[in-house]
UniProtKB/TrEMBL annotation:
Domain of life: Bacteria
Membrane-spanning segments: 733-757
Ranges where the HTH luxR-type domain occurs: 872-937
Name of the protein this chain belongs to: HTH luxR-type domain-containing protein
Keyword Transmembrane helix: yes
InterPro entries the UniProt entry points to: Ig-like_fold (IPR013783), Sig_transdc_resp-reg_C-effctor (IPR016032), Tscrpt_reg_LuxR_C (IPR000792), WD40/YVTN_repeat-like_dom_sf (IPR015943), WH-like_DNA-bd_sf (IPR036388), Y_Y_Y (IPR011123)
Protein source organism: Psychroflexus planctonicus
Organism ancestry: Bacteria, Pseudomonadati, Bacteroidota, Flavobacteriia, Flavobacteriales
Any matching Pfam family: GerE
Alphabetized CDD domains for the sequence: LuxR_C_like
Length: 941
């Protein structure tokens, strides 16, 4: 299977597939991040940038010096200064700043940067200034460009450089210091003297000077560019007229970045042709550009009239969105007749002049196209717009409607006068009539919405449905169905019925599914996994797939864009890293990739489109570090001590304090996606998961020595160098070496003294114990006699109580029997009748029913068993009188037969009563009822 794909790529490489020119340049604006004054807590205007060796960015701002580490802004206020105009870092890493009525430098105090003013040095040197516009290092000295002269600073202090006239500006160009004096032209300053550059007297006010192969380019503030050599200067071009230039930077790729006062930012090629023009709400957030800086990642920091923009020019991506006139979510893009056509949910937009980045919106909305655009179809050298309102033929910049049903797509057939169109209600035949297309009939048996139509060859068509699978149609030479339409779904090898889409990739049919990609086997009429794509992409769903016709296949998978490329013949690689920058922009509805040519790939976006240029060289800085920015420890009085790693020294905390370590990686190429991992030796053996947070706190650490390590991972999956800082959790006084020495001395003394003390104590204790034992024996004997007597008395009382109870019952029974005997005898003597005998029987029944005997029994029973029945009745469990009687008889260990006779019930009735009593007492099956009642009696005692 893989060899088939290798052959396809080989054929594609050898085939010319583009009619367009490689020089096609599409309009687009760079990805950017905007920082406003609230973000960095400074003034709205900034004037200058510089980057430290560690990568930290410093910005001269109206309200002080700003520092950015890729995660957080810090502002350092400067006393007695209204605006900071310029900032630079010398070869020793010292940060110098200058502005209105102020100049000086910053030193690291251990808790941050602290400003050291040089105004005292000005007084010593008797120098007066009102403004510092530029600072630079030259010949081991720091030079301050004031409003009219140069001031040099060295270890000997400040000194004024004698000037031939009124200084306008100064420039460092190729290691040369060139100064421009009013009405005098340019002078080079070297070895403490000014040397005039010939034929420069008539130069107007300059904004910048840059070197070229012959000499220099002079950029004037009015927009003119002059080329200069030793013979003089001549006008090269005018950048933009009218135009006021504030700053010009030559970029590392040879382009020029030009910041203007009211025309935004211009990117010029090395020949000064316009490459990019960004202005207010068209690429940048203001039309006024104060200053420009290219950082270590070849991206631009742009100081605006209100805030700072970060332009990611180094990335091969541009955005085409509402700032360029394209409104809404993108759905399809097509290059036709010299123009780019873009379809969104708001309609059709066409670029007037490809490559011309004019002040106006470069894309024009086409009337009558309002609403949802789905796709474009090129048919018979004309372009068709597929729209939710129907199908339109695009004629220039007008629309001609020829179909009223919501249209998805059109495909050409082997018959040049017949095309097929998929719409909301199926697939329809369209025949050519008077240079237009007319619906003649429908493909029978298919009424499903037909969004995707792909011809496998001239006679086989595949239609994909979003949640019902795919349909295969075979046609004869007249484009009529040969047989019934075949429907394929989960029953034929797919993992499910949803998300199935068909693609013809360089002549080979491929089918995406919910999980993985598949091939169709016409012999078995079934689908099987595609080994090549399984290896390249795995089993996750691919929502769009397109070949550029050469050696690349672009895809969108799980909301992420990527490309499969051939590194060398037969070896393929999947690349997704650089595209992490644009994944957040990609739309999640009907995602689509449009290959305009090999240098212009358009991806549908939530707002417009993302333009990708594979030919743009994108350099990735692989070497970067994570910086530990600060270490904060809480003091016992809940205050905070802050230090930096350079000044941390022997950092120590006690076990009741906490420590917070802040860190950052000044890697600005995708700084929004930086993540960090850390560990604390010796507690952590493994690194933590990757987190976006840039701080870590620890508290209640055991005492000992620790080393905190941290590293970052950038958007490309590259890890930074590891940074670390060590600290100590101080040993408490009772665990110090002095305390341990004391413990050892005490131990030695104990070894000597304890045996002596023990012997003495043993003698005393032996004598004392002997006396005590004798006394205890005497007391115990007396107690034993007393307890024995008490036991005998108790047993005697118990027997008496029992005897009394039995006696009373016997007496009562005897009295009852005598009474009955007397009545029977009397009745017999008197010749009593049967009625009289019945009366006697009733008397017996009353006696048996009389509860009085129970009260007496209960009284005497409680006397013997310590009010047992009374306490049993007072339990939380409510017992009936009969259940209380039963409990009493069971406590006396009577049998069921005995209890039955007493209660005048059957033995079965006694067992049932026992069962109910167990349930009320919540006894388990393993517990014995009688034992429980006996234990209850014992507890009550």
């Amino acid at each position: 299977m893989k060899s088939n794909w290798i052959f396809i790529f080989f054929v594609a490489i050898c085939t010319e597939v583009y009619a367009q020119s490689d020089s096609l340049q599409l309009s687009g604006i760079p990805l950017r991040t905007h920082f406003n004054s609230e973000d960095y807590q400074g003034g709205i205007e900034s004037w200058d940038f510089v980057q430290s060796e560690k990568g930290l960015l410093y910005v001269a701002n109206n309200k002080g010096l700003l520092e950015f580490d890729g995660n957080k802004w810090i502002k350092y206020a400067i006393p007695d200064a209204t605006k900071i105009r310029t900032v630079t870092i010398d070869s020793k890493g010292v940060i110098y700043v200058g502005g209105q009525n102020q100049l000086g430098y910053f030193i690291d105090t251990g808790t941050g940067l602290e400003f050291q003013s040089l105004r005292k040095e000005l007084k010593k040197a008797k120098i007066e200034i009102s403004e510092i516009w530029k600072i630079f290092e030259y010949e081991d000295k720091i030079y301050f460009n004031t409003e009219d002269k140069l001031i040099a600073y060295s270890s000997s202090g400040l000194e004024t450089i004698e000037s031939p006239g009124f200084l306008i500006n100064s420039y460092i160009v190729d290691g040369r210091l060139i100064c421009h004096f009013y009405n005098m032209g340019l002078y080079e300053f070297k070895k403490g003297k000014y040397h005039s550059l010939p034929k420069t007297e008539l130069l107007p006010k300059l904004a910048a000077i840059h070197a070229n192969n012959k000499g220099y380019y002079f950029f004037t503030e009015s927009g003119d560019v002059y080329e200069y050599d030793e013979t003089g200067f001549e006008l090269k071009t005018n950048i933009l007229n009218p135009c006021t230039i504030n700053d010009v930077k030559k970029l590392k790729n040879g382009d020029y970045a030009v910041g203007t006062q009211n025309n935004g930012l211009l990117i010029l090629k090395s020949d000064f042709s316009l490459k990019l023009h960004l202005t207010n709400n068209k690429g940048i957030t203001s039309r006024t550009v104060k200053s420009i800086y290219e950082d270590n990642f070849n991206n631009l920091w742009v100081a605006l009239n209100n805030g700072i923009d970060y332009l990611k020019l180094n990335l091969p991506f541009r955005l085409i969105n509402e700032e360029l006139g394209v409104e809404g979510t993108g759905y399809d893009a097509y290059y036709f007749d010299g123009n780019i056509h873009l379809g969104t949910n708001n309609g059709l937009f066409i670029e007037n002049n490809t490559g011309d980045f004019s002040e106006d919106k470069p894309f024009q909305f086409i009337p009558r196209s309002e609403g949802q655009v789905y796709t474009f179809s090129e048919i018979d050298n004309s372009l068709i717009l597929n729209h939710h309102k129907g199908a339109f033929k695009i004629v220039g910049k007008k629309l001609k409607k020829f179909h009223d049903i919501g249209s998805w797509t059109f495909v050409e057939t082997s018959n040049p006068n017949l095309i097929l169109g998929g719409d909301y209600r199926g697939i329809k035949y369209f025949e050519k009539e008077n240079d237009s297309w007319k619906n003649t009939t429908d493909i029978p048996g298919l009424t499903e919405s037909s969004r995707i139509l792909v011809f496998e060859n001239d006679s086989v068509l595949w239609m994909s449905h979003g949640y019902r699978g795919v349909y295969r149609m075979a046609f004869d030479e007249n484009m009529q169905l040969k047989n019934e339409i075949k429907h394929f779904d989960q029953r034929h090898g797919f993992p499910s019925n949803i998300l199935i889409t068909s693609y013809n990739i360089d002549g080979k049919m491929v089918f995406t599914s919910e999980h993985g990609m598949y091939n169709f086997n016409p012999t078995t009429q079934a689908f099987s996994s595609n080994a090549f794509f399984d290896e390249m992409l795995g089993k996750e769903h691919v929502s769009d797939l397109v070949s550029d016709g050469e050696n690349s296949i672009y895809f969108i998978q799980n909301q992420k864009f990527g490309v499969i490329e051939e590194e060398k013949f037969g070896n393929f690689n999947t690349n997704t890293t650089v595209f992490e920058h644009i994944n957040r922009y990609i739309s999640d509805d009907l995602q689509h990739i449009s290959v305009i040519d090999k240098n212009n790939i358009l991806i549908t976006s939530k707002e417009g489109f993302v333009l990708y240029n594979p030919s743009q060289r994108h350099s990735i800085n692989k070497d970067f570090s994570t910086i530990i920015r600060s270490v904060k420890k809480s003091k016992s009085e809940d205050s905070t001590y802050v230090t930096t790693p350079l000044r941390a020294g022997n950092l120590a905390i006690d076990k009741n304090q906490s420590i917070k370590i802040e860190y950052a990686a000044p890697y600005y190429d995708g700084f929004e996606d930086l993540k960090y991992s850390f560990r604390l030796h010796p507690l952590d053996e493994k690194w933590s998961k990757w987190y976006s947070m840039n701080e870590k706190s620890y508290d209640h650490l055991p005492y000992g020595n620790y080393t905190f390590e941290v590293k970052a991972i950038n958007i490309y999956g590259i890890e930074s160098q590891v940074s670390s800082i060590s600290f100590q959790v101080s040993t408490p006084w009772y665990a110090t070496w002095m305390a341990r020495t004391g413990y050892f001395m005490i131990f030695l003394m104990a070894l000597v003294l304890i045996p002596i003390i023990q012997r003495r104590r043993h003698k005393v204790e032996t004598s004392f114990i002997t006396e005590q034992k004798e006394k205890e024996l005497q007391v115990k004997d007396e107690e034993i006699d007393k307890l024995y007597n008490e036991k005998l008395q108790t047993e005697l009382d118990l027997k008496n109580d029992q005897l009394t109870s039995i006696t009373m019952q016997l007496i009562k029974n005897k009295e009852f029997i005598q009474t009955v005997q007397n009545k029977i005898s009397y009745t017999i003597d008197k010749g009593g009748s049967s009625q009289e005998l019945k009366r006697i029987i009733n008397t017996i029944d009353k006696e048996l029913a009389d509860e009085d005997y129970w009260d007496k029994f209960a009284y005497h029973f409680d006397q013997v068993h310590g009010n047992y029945l009374e306490k049993l009745s007072n339990q939380n469990i409510k017992l009936s009188p009969r259940e209380i009687k039963l409990a009493a008889f069971l406590r006396m260990n009577m049998s069921s037969k005995e209890i039955a006779k007493i209660l005048n019930i059957t033995t079965r009735g006694v067992e049932l009563a026992r069962y109910r009593l167990r349930k009320k007492l919540n006894l388990s099956r393993e517990q014995n009822l009688v034992e429980y009642l006996i234990e209850l009696d014992n507890k009550k005692k």
